[in-house]
Amino acid sequence: MNFLLEIVTPDRTAYTDSVDAVSVPTPQGTISVLPRHAGLFTVLSEGEIKVTTANKHLYLAIGGGFMEVTKKIVSILVSRAVHADEINERAIKEAQERAKEVLAHKGKGEEFSAAQAIMRRSLLELKVLRRHRSRQMPLTH
After folding, report:
1. Which alpha helices (H) appear in the chain, and where do they start and end?
2. Is the separation of the CB atoms in 18 and 2 below 8 Å?
3. Chain-centre distance of CA 124, in angstroms?
4. What predicted TM-score, i.e. pTM, was given to this entire model?
5. Closest CA to 79 of 4, 3, 1, 11
6. Helix, strand, coil proportions of the chain in percent (round to 5)?
7. pLDDT digits (tens, 9 = 90+) for 56-81
8. How many C-beta neighbours within 10 Å does residue 24 have?
9. For residues 12 and 62, is the Cβ–Cβ distance under 8 A?
10. Cβ neighbours of residue 17 under 8 Å, at least 6 residues apart?
């Protein structure tokens, strides 16, 4: 048994398919949704989503947002969603270096906040990328 999962950003539908489970980050910790989960509406934190289908996992890095669980569908609305295979490691590391320079020189106001956000996103995306690379093999039971 499975359910329909939709992950939507302001720019695109990042994912839509029938899945066995999904785990999402919330301010209180990670929540896993399985078929026949009770109805739920919750806030999502910036973090990692793990989607389980058949014998494999898919990972996405997300910005904050919301999740609604109903009997037939789980809808996730987030500010951004990046699949592990869309992540460019070299570009992330370059952005990290630029952000580190701003943080080291104690940049001003918005510049400092933007550098902090880039560091958070880049660390998350690198985590998702590494997890994806280490688990490209199908699961065995």
Report:
1. 89-104, 109-134
2. yes
3. 8
4. 0.73
5. 11
6. 30, 40, 30
7. 888 899 989 999 999 889 999 999 99
8. 25
9. no
10. 4, 5, 53
Interval 107-129 mean pLDDT: 74
Residue 41, SS3 per DSSP: strand
Let me know: does 112 contact 102? Beta carbons within 8 Å.
yes
How far is Cα 77 from Cα 105, in angstroms, rounded to an integer? 36
Distance CA 72, CA 8 (A): 17
In sequence order, the 6+-apart residues with CB closer than 8 A to the CB of 67 are: 24, 31, 33, 40, 41, 42, 44, 74, 75, 76, 77
The residues facing 24 across adjacent strands are 31
pLDDT digits (tens, 9 = 90+) for 19-41: 999 999 999 999 999 999 999 99
Within 8 A by CB and 6+ apart from 38, the residues are 69
Strands lying side by side in the sheet with 29-33: 29-33, 21-26, 47-53, 56-62, 81-83
DSSP 97-116: HHHHHHHHTT--HHHHHHHH
